[in-house]
Design brief:
Blueprint: H1 2-7, H2 12-28, H3 39-51, H4 57-74, H5 100-107, H6 112-124, H7 128-132, E1 139-140, E2 145-148, E3 157-160, H8 166-185, H9 197-200, E4 215-221, E5 228-232, H10 245-249, H11 259-264, E6 270-272, E7 286-288
Antiparallel strand pairs: 1-2, 2-3, 4-5, 6-7
Length: 309
C-alpha cells in the first residue's frame, strides 16, 4: 500500500494516516487479512467508530477513504454499496476569529524566530507547514510577495508579504545566511530537495536559494546519502503554540486557539466582519489591516474642469 501511495504522489501525511487506519481495521477483526473481509466487516468497523469511539464525521470519512483505497486500488476489488453504516453527525460550527487586541496579546508573548514565523502566518495567510517549508528563493522582497510551493493539494500560489515584516525578515535572512556559511565550512550545509531534483541538479542541496527560511537548530545525518542536513522547524516548535500564560496575563483573551484559526482564518490583509455580529448592521464588507499592509498615499484631487460655454 505504501508503494502504491508513493507511486501516485500522495503526501506523506496521507500515507501515514491511511496505513494507520488499515492497521486499526485489521486489528479490529482479529488480525484477519483484508482480502478475507468484505462489506459486512467494513460496515461494522465504520459503525463502531461512530457508536463506540464517537469519532467526528471527518475522521469517519477519512477511515472510509483509506479502506476504499485499499480495496479498489491495492487489492483491485470492487466494493458494493455499504448499507447500514452509522454516520457520525457533522456539526455546523462557526470559525474562531480573534480580535486585533487578542492577536496582539498572543504575539506579544513571542520573540525571535517564533514571533517572526507566527506574524508571517497571520499576515500572509499561511498554513502551518506552508510557513515552515518556505525556502529562501520563495521570498520576493522586490515584488512584496511569497511563493507557496506544493501547498495543500500540491498546489502553488502567491500571497502577500506584509510590509511591516520586511525589515525583520531581511535581518533574519542574513542570520540564516551566516549560519549556512558556517555549515559549509564545517562540511555540512545540505538540504532536502523535492522529488528527484537532486539527480537533476547535484549541487542544488548546498546552494543558498534552496535553504529553508526557518531552519532547525541542529543537524541530522541522512542514512541514504550520509549528508549532514538541516531540516526546517517542526510543528511542535514554540512558533506554532501560543503560550498558555497569555490567557492568565490577558483575561480578555477568550482562549488560546490552534494555529489555523488563530493565524490564518481571514485572508492576508483582509478581515471579514461576521454577518451575525451584533455590531454589524450591514452585510459583510472588507476591512483593511493597516498594521500589516499600510495603504499607499492617496492621490491628490483632480482640478475641476472649467465650464464650457
Amino acid at each position: 500500500m505504501r508503494a502504491i501511495l508513493r507511486a501516485r504522489h500522495y503526501s506523506r501525511r496521507t500515507e501515514e494516516s491511511y496505513v494507520a487506519w488499515i492497521r486499526r481495521y485489521i486489528h479490529f477483526h482479529g488480525r484477519r487479512h483484508p482480502a478475507d473481509l468484505g462489506e459486512p466487516e467494513l460496515t461494522r468497523f465504520l459503525s463502531a467508530l461512530a457508536t463506540e469511539r464517537q469519532v467526528s464525521a471527518s475522521t469517519q470519512n477519512q477511515a472510509l477513504a483509506a479502506l476504499l483505497f485499499l480495496y479498489q486500488t491495492v487489492l483491485e476489488r470492487e466494493i458494493a454499496w455499504l448499507e447500514g453504516i452509522v454516520h457520525a453527525k457533522r456539526p455546523e460550527r462557526l470559525p474562531v476569529v480573534l480580535s486585533r487586541g487578542e492577536i496582539s496579546a498572543v504575539l506579544a508573548q513571542m520573540s525571535g524566530v517564533e514571533h517572526l514565523c507566527a506574524s508571517l502566518m497571520y499576515g500572509a495567510g499561511l498554513r502551518v507547514l506552508e510557513a515552515l517549508q518556505l525556502r529562501i528563493k520563495d521570498v520576493d522582497f522586490a515584488g512584496q510577495q511569497l511563493m507557496v510551493r506544493d501547498g495543500k493539494g500540491r498546489k502553488d500560489r502567491a500571497t502577500l508579504l506584509p510590509t511591516t515584516l520586511q525589515a525583520a525578515l531581511r535581518q533574519h535572512v542574513e542570520s540564516v545566511r551566516d549560519q549556512h556559511a558556517a555549515d559549509l565550512r564545517a562540511g555540512a550545509g545540505f538540504v532536502q530537495l523535492p522529488d528527484a531534483l537532486r539527480a537533476k541538479y547535484p549541487s542544488a542541496p548546498r546552494e543558498w536559494p534552496w535553504q529553508w527560511l526557518f531552519p532547525a537548530t541542529r543537524h541530522y545525518t541522512d542514512p541514504a546519502t550520509g549528508e549532514r542536513r538541516r531540516h526546517h522547524l517542526h510543528e511542535p516548535s514554540p512558533a506554532l503554540r501560543p503560550p498558555r500564560r497569555t490567557r492568565r496575563r490577558y483575561p480578555e483573551t477568550r482562549h488560546t486557539p490552534h494555529p489555523p484559526p488563530f493565524l490564518r482564518h481571514p485572508p492576508a490583509g483582509i478581515r471579514l466582519r461576521h454577518p451575525h455580529h451584533p455590531t454589524t448592521a450591514r452585510p459583510q464588507r472588507r476591512q483593511h489591516d493597516h498594521d500589516l499592509h499600510p495603504r499607499p498615499a492617496p492621490r491628490p484631487p483632480r482640478r475641476p474642469e472649467p465650464p464650457r460655454p
